[in-house]
Design goal:
single chain; three-stranded antiparallel β-sheet; mainly alpha; two-stranded antiparallel ribbon; 12 helices
């Protein structure tokens, strides 16, 4: 279950709009290994620890937590403890508290759950229920990830056409990677959403309980999550295009092997200056010997 599904889905919509006519950035090649390794290449690559670059941006759109995003399709699987730590970091991130508070304000303004009342008391009840939804949804989904040996991370495609990456991102709502590296149905997302909705019957007002309302809440949450992966996929491209233009140009030139251009006022190569010993020897005439 995604954090703050409404805001993340809206962010995904903004990302898609900003990508109109945008070509995906060129990936830099990996640095060669300094020491040869006699182990199979597939084993080395799959079990290589993730670097900071592999983990991707820790802040999507500068604010949303990106702890569950990986830039490597063959990243090593997470242990059960690492999955729980990831769930805790995403649930109790400051962004989650603030975005939940914003959504609760909209809920109260829209007269949802009137049994909670209004004012500070009503806002506090709604906020507590929303944070419980957030916590139970995240940890229920993580529990199913551990049970079914499913990797909870989103693995960025990062290359190809925008259309291909768009469909890939949307498909991740139903497709997940197992701890063995194979593809499987994303049971944790589906079961975690319904489990969280069922648990909410314990603290929601009596008028908001029941099987029908539980199914409605689960389906609504599942649909909100449908576009929640779009910022994870496209944010690095948007960031390079609009916020790192100079850096992106220099990195692209380095990757293409284009030498940097010298400005008009920059010093010339010492090897070509008149003071250079080699050039002096080449240009100076031979000495005349007395007859």
């Amino acid at each position: 279950m995604q954090n703050s599904p409404g805001l993340s889905s809206f962010a995904g919509f903004l990302v898609v709009l900003s990508l109109t006519g945008f070509a995906s950035a060129q990936e830099l090649p990996d640095a060669p290994e300094s020491q040869p390794d006699l182990r199979p290449a597939a084993f080395i690559q799959q079990n290589k620890p993730e670097t900071v670059e592999d983990k991707g941006d820790q802040r999507i759109l500068f604010v949303m937590p990106g702890y569950g995003v990986s830039n490597r399709q063959d990243a090593a699987p997470l242990t059960a403890k690492e999955k729980l730590v990831r769930a805790a970091k995403g649930t109790y991130d400051p962004y989650s508290w603030l975005s939940t508070g914003f959504q609760v304000g909209l809920s109260q303004a829209g007269h949802q759950f009137p049994q909670y009342g209004y004012g500070v008391a009503g806002y506090s009840k709604r906020y507590g229920a929303a944070m419980l939804d957030q916590t139970t949804g995240e940890f229920a989904g993580t529990g199913y990830c551990i049970l079914f040996k499913e990797d909870p991370r989103y693995f960025r495609l990062g290359e190809g056409s925008i259309r291909r990456r768009l469909f890939y991102s949307l498909a991740q709502e139903f497709s997940a990677k197992s701890d063995k590296g194979t593809r499987m149905f994303k049971w944790a997302n589906l079961l975690g959403t319904f489990t969280s909705s069922a648990i909410s019957n314990a603290y929601y007002p009596p008028a908001s309980r029941g099987v029908g309302l539980t199914m409605t809440r689960a389906a609504t949450s599942f649909l909100w999550d449908f576009t929640g992966e779009l910022p994870d996929e496209f944010w690095p491209d948007v960031k390079r295009k609009f916020f790192q233009r100079n850096t992106g140009m220099s990195r692209s030139s380095d990757a293409a092997g284009i030498p940097p251009t010298r400005s008009a006022g920059s010093p010339r190569d010492p090897a070509l200056t008149p003071e250079s010993p080699e050039l002096s020897r080449k240009e100076s005439p031979p000495a005349m010997t007395p007859q």
